[in-house]
Structure formats: structure tokens, C-alpha cells
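Quick sanity check, Ketosteroid isomerase homolog:
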Amino acid sequence: MDQTLQVRQAAADLVAAFANNDTARYFACFSEDATFLFHTVPQPLLSRRAYEELWASWQADGFAVLGCESSNAQVSLQGEVAIFMHDVTTRLNVAGETLDLNERETIVFRLHGDRWLACHEHLSVVSPA
């Protein structure tokens, strides 16, 4: 399979796991040394473990993903690294309140053997035109 298609499939698997609130499958899409930069969190998360701990605390407070859709995807291959950029529309339950978010995301994938794993994720708000 073409590497661009492999990256698109890895991203689709990640988004599907997130959309289905499938915690184990979602975090399996990331390398252990993955880093995360979210506009909703005051500091970068410097490991998958740090994000997993934050995720667990969100879930304890009633957080759940209700749905997520990806659009306008672009892939840039850079050797054994790939940059995946897309627009993402997400519906969340946060402490009993439903939130609809429109964001832009960059996910950097790195080839691990024959599998593309996310090693960095950057989520930002979509600026009004």
C-alpha cells in the first residue's frame, strides 16, 4: 500500500477510535514518546502517559466523546515522518454539557517498523475568516 494511503488509514483509525470514545484503541495509535499541544490545556503534554492521565481525570469528571468527523485532510511525507493536517468537528460531553467544537489539527506520524504511529498532535481553534 502507498505510504500516503497508510498514513491516511492510520489517521482514520485514530479519529475513529476517538469518535467512538474507545480509550485503549485511541491511545494505541500514539507512540509512548508522543507529545501533545492542545489549546484547551495550559501546558504541553510531553508523553502519551501524561495525556492518558489527563484523559482519565476528564473521564472521571464526566467527559465523553460523542462524535468526531475529519475533513480537508492533507498528508506530507518527510521520509519516515508524515504530517497529517485536517479540520475536525467534534461533539463532546463535558460535565453534563454537550459541546460542539470546530478545530484544526496537525498530527505527526512516525514509521515504527511497518506501522505509522502518531508522535505529536497539535490542536487549535479555527480562526474566523
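Posting the structure with no commentary besides this: The chain has a mean pLDDT of 96.
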